[in-house]
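Team,

Forwarding the record for the chain on the shared tracking sheet. I've put the sequence and predicted structure together so nobody has to dig through attachments.
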Amino acid sequence: MSPFSSHPALQGLRALLCGFAQIFLQSHPGCGLLVLLAIAIDAPPLLAGALLGGLSSTLTARWRGYAQADIGLGLYGYNGVLLGLLLSLKLAWTPLLALLIITSASLSSLLLAPWMRRMRTRGWLPAFTFPFVLLGWLLLALGAQWQLPAAAIAPPPAIPALNALELLLAVLRGLGQVIFLDSPLAGLCLLLGLRLADGRTAFWALLGSSSGFALALLHGWPSDGALAGLYGYNAALAAIALGQMHPRPWLPALGIVLALLLQPGFSALGLPALTMPFILACWLVGAGVQRWQQAVKDSAPPC
């Protein structure tokens, strides 16, 4: 029996760590611990927001009596963690910020529960991080309208020369940007966490991030954004998700391309992309697969 199953407090700790891991679609507490460590190393001020968001969304799921198995897998934690990270990144710490994190993280669980129920009973596509994106857009708009105090912004780092080492570091930064980190060391922690959970997932994450970087340079997108990993994180998430869901390797590759093509459109709309390109890419591929499978089933001769 796992030591995490022997005591309610340890069960709660496991659920919280799995919530951090579920950002990368994993349910491994060791992976979650390395995600938490990456935040602590690169952005300690964001750690409190991440923990507050993860605890709020998980405790809300417990209070509402949602399935214990889902809570234990961290499925009600990751949107809260991301909201805590985003709000801590954008807004200065005040009592209002803590209230916003608790409220939005709790709402993310309330939005996710009916979606998962319909996914299992009606064949809906997975929500992924859609509650985070929806609530994140709303809160960023409200923060601007209410003129809430912004968090201190560090000056952007100097653009390094493009060489083999910087190519590798950019790929690691692409993993870190999933949780708003731009440190290669943080990206390495995340890669180790993914390797601990599933070696194949770590491979897809590296392939997605490196493909995003390569295509950004190929299309002449800003090199500073490419070197910071800003074009890699949605591609990495799409590769992880579709690599786990479909055995055919061309489907994750298609998801990578779609995520990259969709990302610039959000800048044109004046919206932060967050993880919406990843979500849309996976929905498009998933819907296409469902339609294909239905077409094959309909065309099959009766027995």
